[in-house]
Amino acid sequence: MLDSDIIEWRKELILYVMHLKPYSALRVLGLAESMPLSSNPEDMEKLNLTFEFISLWLRDLMLIKMDSDKKVLTNIDLIEQSMEIAEKWDIDNIIDKINDVQNTWRDIYHLNANKQLSFENLFIRISS
Questions:
Q1: CATH number at residue 119
Q2: Strand, helix or coil for residue 111
Q3: Which positions ≥6 away from 45 have C-beta within 8 Å?
Q4: What DSSP line would sit under 51-109, residue for residue?
Q5: How many domains does the chain have?
Q6: Is 13 helix (H, G, I), strand (E, B) or coil?
Q7: Mean pLDDT over residues 56-66, rounded?
Q8: pLDDT score at 1
C-alpha cells in the first residue's frame, strides 16, 4: 500500500469505528468482514496497522479527556469527531476498550483465534 492509501484507509477505519452503534449488527459484521483475515504478509501488515490505528485513536480520546495539549494527538485530522466521542465516554470506558484491543491482538497473534470472530467481538465491545 502507498502511504496515501494507508492514510486514507486509517481515516475510513477510524470514522467507521467511531460510528458503530451497540445495536447495529450489520455495521459491526460489515467492518469485521472488511478486516484482513488471511495470513499472507500484506494482510498481516494491514492487521498490525488496524490494531495500531485503533489503539492510537483510543489514546487520543484519553488525551482529550485529560485536557492534554491537542498538539500531542495522533489523529489531528479527526479531532472534532474525536472530541464528540470523548465527551460521551468516560476514562474507564476508554481504558476498557484499549484493553479489548490489546486482548484481541493477543488472541489473534498468540492464541491463533479466529480473526473474523475476534474482530466481531472487538467491534461489538467498542460500540458499547
A1: 1.20.272.10
A2: coil
A3: none
A4: HHHHHHHHHHHHHHHTT--GGG-S-GGGHHHHHHHHHHS-HHHHHHHHHHHHHHHHHHH
A5: 1
A6: helix
A7: 96
A8: 55
